[in-house]
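Q: Please design a sequence for this.
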């Protein structure tokens, strides 16, 4: 596994200003859309206010050029005129594959939805070359890859979803930790406490087996008790200094590696 990534909380990034290469502020980050097979960020959704009223500007993380945390700005290697002339989504409508195809052709971005021979090991964002894929993770990712098509989902929407582990309640998703270098949604921050006492814990996204959108619920291939027994997470002032090696070892490298789906 590796550390020192350019990671950040979604809650921190939300409302950051979006700046183009010609120093134009397009608006603020409103949401991030990800696909539910790879759990990769596919679009940064920009609220452009008066600049393009009624339109939803979608920018791929592939065009992201940097982050200015002091000024709360996300920079993209695109000029404002180029973005303004792009196919833009109607705020009131879901993003169609037709629109995605038009966007990717316009910007020259690769089409992530084109079928390939991707293997589970390529979906595991914590692995260093030479490391084996944890058994329960391999099982989860194999199930994901059996889906015929990836669908876009909203990070903002899943914050608030309930999580269950093997049929038992775990808690409620409060935030998401992203790797801005490659777009991976790495971890979910889950409140396993009660209404009068919050207790935050980390759950790696690779353990999510399904998302029930109608019920606003996520299922993970972990016993609920195992999540609740993990170390409580205290949100650091600087997420860049936080290391996820201990929580990954807890889930995947100790006795839970082989039996994470069979009880704590």
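A: Design:
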């Amino acid at each position: 596994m590796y550390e020192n990534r350019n990671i950040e909380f979604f809650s921190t990034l939300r409302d950051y200003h979006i700046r183009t290469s010609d120093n134009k502020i397009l608006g603020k980050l409103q949401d991030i859309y990800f696909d539910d097979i790879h759990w990769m960020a596919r679009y940064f959704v920009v609220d452009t206010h008066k600049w393009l009223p009624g339109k939803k500007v979608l920018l791929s993380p592939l065009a992201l050029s940097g982050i200015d945390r002091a000024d709360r700005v996300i920079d993209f290697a695109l000029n404002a005129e180029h973005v303004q002339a792009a196919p833009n989504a109607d705020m009131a409508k879901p993003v169609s594959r037709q629109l995605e195809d038009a966007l990717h052709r316009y910007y020259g971005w690769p089409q992530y939805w084109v079928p390939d021979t991707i293997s589970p090991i390529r979906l595991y964002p914590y692995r260093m070359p030479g490391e084996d894929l944890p058994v329960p993770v391999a099982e989860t990712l194999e199930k994901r890859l059996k889906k015929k098509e990836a669908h876009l989902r909203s990070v903002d929407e899943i914050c608030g979803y309930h999580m269950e582990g093997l049929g038992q309640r775990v808690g409620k998703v409060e935030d998401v930790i992203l790797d801005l270098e490659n777009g991976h949604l790495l971890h979910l921050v889950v409140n396993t406490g009660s209404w009068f006492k919050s207790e935050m814990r980390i759950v790696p996204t690779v353990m999510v087996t399904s998302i029930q959108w109608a019920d606003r619920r996520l299922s993970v291939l972990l016993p609920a008790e195992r999540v609740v027994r993990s170390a409580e997470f205290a949100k650091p002032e600087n997420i860049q200094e936080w290391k996820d090696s201990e929580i990954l070892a807890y889930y995947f490298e100790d006795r839970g590696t082989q039996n994470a789906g069979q009880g704590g």
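Q: Thanks. Anything notable?
A: Residues 120-148+159-259 form a domain with the Photosynthetic Reaction Center; Chain H, domain 2 fold (CATH 3.90.50.10). The chain has two domains: 7-107, 120-148+159-259.
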